[in-house]
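> call design_seq(struct)
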């Protein structure tokens, strides 16, 4: 269990990072995200305190968001970035991204909404997600057995 004020949500989806210093754009896979920041593997040329525009778009949706983030930690696994001051719309976007709202009724809708946060790069992972959604998520989203 993550004891952070804003727990990380494991994920594996692509976002675009644009350096505020030189305008260089990089498409990278992020490994986790929270309301306050994210972790990305292999961000080329990253240095402490560098600022980036981070462009998010949710698969299958037109809506996208551009957030400001600053490098706060670099290690052998990648770079941690903290979001700059977020306005209410940006906070809501992150909340919907990290905690998808699903009523538990339509399994396909659940797979689509939660699939972005799960590492579903192979068939076994997709089946695991489907199994989770058909039991755990349905149970918790409906508040128990009806």
């Amino acid at each position: 269990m993550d004891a952070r004020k804003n727990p990380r949500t494991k994920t594996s989806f692509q976002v675009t990072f644009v350096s505020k210093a030189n305008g260089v754009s990089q498409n990278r896979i992020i490994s986790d995200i929270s309301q306050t920041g994210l972790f990305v593997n292999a961000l080329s040329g990253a240095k402490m305190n560098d600022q980036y525009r981070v462009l998010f778009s949710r698969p299958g949706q037109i809506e996208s968001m551009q957030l400001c983030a600053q490098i706060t930690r670099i290690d052998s696994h990648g770079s941690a970035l903290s979001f700059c001051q977020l306005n209410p719309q940006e906070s809501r976007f992150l909340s919907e991204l990290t905690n998808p709202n699903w009523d538990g009724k339509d399994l396909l809708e659940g797979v689509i909404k939660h699939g972005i946060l799960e590492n579903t790069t192979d068939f076994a992972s997709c089946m695991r997600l489907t199994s989770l959604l058909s039991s755990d998520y349905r149970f918790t989203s409906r508040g128990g057995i009806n």
